[in-house]
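Example record

The entry below shows one chain as it appears in the dataset: sequence first, then structure tokens.
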Amino acid sequence: MNRIIHEKQDMTYLSWSKIRNSSGTAGSFLKAYSMLGGKKTYYKLSNFDQMGGIIGHECVNEIIVDRLLDILGIPHLHYQLIHADVLIAGKTHEVYLCASEDFKQRGESKLALDAYWDIEHQEGESALDFCIRSGWEEYIYQMLVVDFLILNRDRHGANIEVLRNSRKKTIHLAPLFDHGLSLLFNCRDDAAVEDYDVMADKRVNNYIGSGSTWENLKLIPKGKEPQLNPLKESDKAVLLNGLDGIISQALQDKIWEMIWRRWCAYEDLCHSR
């Protein structure tokens, strides 16, 4: 699959609805879906403002993190970044949106992890302990590493989903998804990018663990660190391929600096144990 479609597409047929306001920023996140040939495809825009149009780059973050998880060997939902015209409130906007397929298989239903924990947990059992008892330990530890590397601000309890098939009596967690509110998502210009401290332990909204992605790494017991493919300096070209003209070079360089320095910090933590 071509992950980035640069040739502009006419997608003015999509009908957009609001997901929610982004935390601490102006604007909204808009989503849409289509059904073609029996296949459901989901679309979303970066942070959108009625006056300014697209004011964020969350969709680009999705592609970068998609590629990062490919490199690390972590199962996840795949995204496409599509150059398109879209119609919002009667006005045409030229955007880069992201598209993804439905990760549910036939016969599966989905439920947010926080809702499932509320129904099924034992008295006094934390969300982390519940996931370990459910057999999802490796998944959770991979997720904690990823969220540290990209400083994911938005791994709330509905951004982890449980997939159930009542007929087959199967239950598992959905592949990792929704990484738009990560990296330097709140930097709107190169001045903000230049001033950004990529190692700052900024407060995050994580359902499992605390509001610190660094402290959450320490929830992974010694000897149970995920076995990941190592990140290499040459991977910068892979992560950022095709993004010239979509986001600035300064932003590209800073995103790589964040991912690389955080990867090195994670490796140092593992080696120091």
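Notes for this example: The mean pLDDT is 93. Residues 129-160+174-271 form one domain.
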